[in-house]
TrEMBL record:
Pathway: Cofactor biosynthesis; thiamine diphosphate biosynthesis; 4-amino-2-methyl-5-diphosphomethylpyrimidine from 5-amino-1-(5-phospho-D-ribosyl)imidazole: step 2/3; Cofactor biosynthesis; thiamine diphosphate biosynthesis; 4-amino-2-methyl-5-diphosphomethylpyrimidine from 5-amino-1-(5-phospho-D-ribosyl)imidazole: step 3/3
Keywords for the protein's UniProt record, in alphabetical order: ATP-binding, Kinase, Nucleotide-binding, Thiamine biosynthesis, Transferase
Signal peptide: none
Protein's gene: thiD
Any single GO BP term: thiamine biosynthetic process
Protein name: Hydroxymethylpyrimidine/phosphomethylpyrimidine kinase
Amino acid sequence: MNDFPQALTIAGSDSGGGAGMQADIKTMQERHVFATNVVVAITAQNTLGVQDSFPLPLELITKQFESLAADFHIKACKTGMLADAAHVAAVAENLRRFDFGPLTLDPVMIAKGGAALLTEDAITTLRNELLPLATVLTPNLPEAEVLIGQSVKTPAEFKLAAQILQKMGAQNIIIKGGHQTAEQQANDYILYADGSDEWLSTPRIETVRTHGTGDTISACITAELAKGTPLKQAIRISKAYIQAAIANPIAVGHGHGPTNHWAYREVEHD
Ligand SMILES: Nc1ncnc2c1ncn2[C@@H]1O[C@H](COP(=O)(O)OP(=O)(O)OP(=O)(O)O)[C@@H](O)[C@H]1O
Ligand SMILES: Cc1ncc(CO)c(N)n1
């Protein structure tokens, strides 16, 4: 009797509640999945920016993994903010030790306000140790550019970037187009492990309330995978979920406000 869908987020805490592991937990809860968490770092953060952050001791990261492995049947997991190279390495080591199902790796680097959530020297560790463990890799455009070391702007460059990332060892790649603010559509490109690909495009919404969009879509994918939803369907549901969360804003905070995590259940969708 330990089989209710359970998922894990390995991420940083956002005191503002709209991004990081709070966005993950809210999203998993909305998708009827029990959310567990490994806290990697704590941020003092609101919709105006990140005021401070503190990575937790490495021993405590490993102990959290051990506590979860001793009790839960986690069927899918994701990573978010991982802080620095030592924490990336510790997370990778624990993910090799324990089977927590498919990993959705959201290579979080910089918060919307510009604060670094991952040190620069950690990028090599992430590329070498974590990326090959990823079932799904979900970079935004700047993250894709950093990971491959070249520019990603045109549709052809999205495709090329995804192919390079797949060669680096991630199985399925989603390059998120949220940062292409001049486009009428929010275009995400997906390259699947079997070589097939697709674009998922939704109308771009003019809003400042986009704090945590990337965390939310990757948490939704993770929740769906924990329930056994096939990957393509999991990604389509997640794109619709984030669209509803952005399109139905809630008035919270004075800056880049959070998305509405309960909108999807209240709006019409397929
Ligand atoms: N204004 C918008 N309108 C519609 N969809 C959007 C908008 N902004 C982002 N999206 C969608 O939200 C998802 C997340 O994309 P984005 O590129 O913003 O991720 P991110 O930069 O990792 O987010 P964050 O760092 O805030 O967590 C993608 O599916 C993207 O297409
Ligand atoms: C803790 C945390 N993780 C991720 C992001 C990116 O949205 C953020 N702003 N804060």
